[in-house]
Amino acid sequence: MKLFKYEGYEVRVAPEALTLKPFKKLWARDKSKDKERAMMEFAFLYFFCDPKSDYQYIKDEEDRLEEIKKGQGLSEDWKPDAILQAAIEFYNSFDSTPAILLRVAREGVDKVQRILEKISTDNIEDDPKKAVSVAKEYLTALKMVPQVAAMIQEAEKAINVEEEYGEARGQIEKAMFDDGLDDVADWVSQQK
After folding, report:
1. Which domain holds residue 13?
2. Which of 37, 101, 104, 190 is such that its CA lies 20 to 30 A from the CA of 51?
3. How many whole angstroms separate alpha carbon 108 and alpha carbon 20?
4. What is the structure's pLDDT at 3?
5. Rounded distance between C-alpha atoms, residue 75 and residue 5, angstroms
6. Are residues 106 and 188 in the same domain?
7. How far apart are CA 172 and CA 168, in angstroms?
8. Please, are residues 26 and 19 in contact by the beta-carbon 8 Å criterion?
9. How far apart are CA 179 and CA 175, in angstroms?
10. Which three-class secondary structure state does DSSP give residue 173?
11. What does the pLDDT look like over 38-70, one tens digit per residue?
12. The domain boundary residue, chosen from 94, 109, 139
């Protein structure tokens, strides 16, 4: 989602985000002048949900929640309330195709990691045949790692390109006579 962006060590909220009901509720309930609570909750939303968040490597949502709380300096007993939970569900409903692909690729990495951990922890000291078999399994799984890593890089790149394209499309300004240049070029070519 392009409504939240992390830059300059803070999460920036696009003005149009506040026109969407779940985000507007977070903003409106914070009656303080500086909107500190709302900004903290928007930062939490970004870190918890956005595919570009540095916390997305944590697959288990409870573990991710705990790490974000530590990173944001929230109290140990803090939990998203119903309004923030609704905003999380809304935010997650906007996954683009590259974001979905990135999530699937990260799940693949998680599976490969579990396979490697299982293989490496098998007790193979007493059985030489089992040791050879496990070593083969381990090497086969290791061969998958570069492919999965490449998939993740491509998905991340696609998300960044998608965002940059969307920003450029909305920020490009026409030069003074841009609208008429094509018509003039057509007219000149017809005169030949």
Report:
1. 1-94
2. 37
3. 33
4. 84
5. 24
6. yes
7. 6
8. no
9. 8
10. coil
11. 999 999 999 998 888 889 888 889 999 999 999
12. 94
